[in-house]
Amino acid sequence: MPKKEKIVLAFSGGLDTSVILKWLQNTKNLEVVTFTADIGQGSEIKEAEKKARSLGVKEIFIENLTNEFVKDYVFPMFRANTLYEGHYLLGTSIARPLIAKKQIQIANEVGASYVSHGATGKGNDQIRFELAYYAENPKIKVIAPWREWNLKSRNDLIEYANNNNISFSKEKKNEPPYSMDANILHTSYEGKILEDPWLPPEERMFTRTVSPEDAPNISTEIEIEFLNGDPVKINHEKKSPEKLLSQLNEIGGKNGVGRLDLVENRFVGMKSRGVYETPGGTILLVARRAIESITLDKGAAHLKDELMPRYAELIYNGFWFSPERKMLQSLINESQRNVNGVVKLKIYKGNVFVLGRKSNSSLYSSEMATFEEEKVYNQKDAEGFIKLNALRLKLFKNIT
Length: 400
Hints:
The chain is built from twelve helices and 14 strands.
């Protein structure tokens, strides 16, 4: 018999990717190689390996990428204080390029001509995965089952699973669950009652934060130290990127920090309502802006804020490996050379308060800022400055 061609599937072990695996075997007659990336999502890793073996997969790749994910993707993104549409910390968006890159590496290693993913034809993830695939290997062939097969609903998936002896959790067989994505940075939820933007999310849905009402009545105070724009210590203790973000997640989660309910604009054109938990990232954003407030020049800080929405949109839309994103990253990285110092925070019932900030690279001058007697600033100089800036306003008034 001729040897089957290989395909590398991004495999979570859930119902969707399990059905996709069997469909690729049955319909496409391909030898499926699975890749499961551990980026801090939790216990599903071992289950994914077990599921892949039960479905006859011979080559199973599982790789712990959590520290690489935080160090080379999350922290560089955070140097820009990145928010999509003013709110979203891009927890799902930033994970896809790394997973796709590793898929291509595995495809090259095992001699696979194809790669596949479990993203639907309605969402952003199909774009993020496939743009990254092609950026890493322009000749790779992509199979996106949700755009090809005739399975249209969760019930169709369940029926296919039953017909092909694919095991899955029966607890929600008759009740569509929330669509969830998790990694060390965040957990996201879509679907179910969230499809009605008027209805609030159910409290039982949340997995990594307590509600602010149930958070402790005593605040938590911490210090975060930064070096070249990246956090390196918590309370004077040096941490790896993975451990640092994990500790911030724990602190934020128990204090009800990091919940977000957002209606966002997908790249494909539709609006989508999602709920996010990003406890450590929320703390980090507040701390970063605090340390930048005393270490960044005004012009540099304002330029960064102007560029940030464009940078965020590139990541959201899947262009992490694009030349323009890399160009912006170089500029952002350059701005962080003197972003060094310590920020003191108070975390209480869903809020993050800045208590203080200090830096050996500080541009803040108490001599300049004081309202008391000083000798470094001549207040009379402001008169000419104001008159020059008023000149065009006077000219405009004369013709209106």
